[in-house]
Prior knowledge:
Blueprint lengths: L3 E6 L9 H16 L1 E6 L8 E3 L9 H10 L3 E5 L6 H13 L4 E5 L8 H10 L3 E4 L2 H9 L4 E3 L16 H7 L8 E6 L11 H4 L4 E6 L13 H7 L3 E3 L7 H6 L2 E4 L12 H8 L4 E3 L5 H5 L6 E3 L5 H10 L10 H17 L1
Amino acid sequence: MKKKVLFISEYLNPPYDEGIKKTVYNLFLDLDKNYDLKVICRHGFQKDNIHIVETNALYYSKEVKSSIKNFNPDSIIYIPFQSSTFATYLRLKMFSYLAKKAKVILIALQPKPLKSWQKFIVNFIKPKMAFTPSPALQNYWSSIKVKNQLIPLLTDLSIFRPLSENRETLRKKYNLPLEAFIISHMGHLNEGRNLKTLIPLQNEDNQVVIVSSSSTPTDALGKDSLKDYLVKSGIIILDRYIENIEEIYQLSDLYIFPVMKKNSSIGMPLSVLEARACGIPVLTTNYGSLSQFLGTDNDGIKYSNPEDFIENVRIIKNNLNPNYNVSKVSELNSTFYNIIHNEINL
């Protein structure tokens, strides 16, 4: 008999165009295939085992309470979209109370700042088991004696794979320059992602292309905004939903990840994994757990401080490696599934 797993998160609805949404959806697909699964979420799609609820900020309602008690799960997996906030720990404690016999597992993708009084309370309501791709969050959990493990994240290898058609054809499709050295970046269009460090690359005879996610804040748009500033520098910004986002990686010569601030991205940037799965070289800051899990990924990843981006782009241009298509990304998928399955099946 399959174990009963209750999967709780806020969003399970498309578009799946940023890291947390992708992680939730990919984990849902795996759990749905391997366990007797029920999902509780605020926003999702129609499926018999997906229960969309209206509830308060702490996820407490008669509907949630009855759903948990009636299902009587062996395990509860919770992935909060706001990651490891104080409210996350409160919700987790409530889930534990409503399913006293269930193993309750927290998966949080990045650290969030807590006030001193909140940290004091978390000591008494901390999770029994937690997973994260963020070394910073892992260090915090270890300091308060939470049983935890560092995990990689998932990449959909049926979508993200090396180019199978002519690169020029894809560049024509998106109206991008055919002969330029294209450096791409995917993600939120906000100040915390350090995007202004890409302007010198644009001025260095490259074409920088940024694809912004659907959750880009409104203050990053409009006149005199970050977007306006980047566009005036010559950077191309695609701020619409792109169904086949893998094609942007595949038409690129290089993928770049300039984020420095630990709370400005999830602990293992999925865009870096996706670019490598597509066989594209990556220039990135040494962010989160990338170097722990991927290292240089067969020389397909180069780590750099933003002030050295220009020099390192020149090096990459002059030393293009025919083995870029070889990546460890598929191994990370297996590692993730093995860790989660082992915890559920214990």
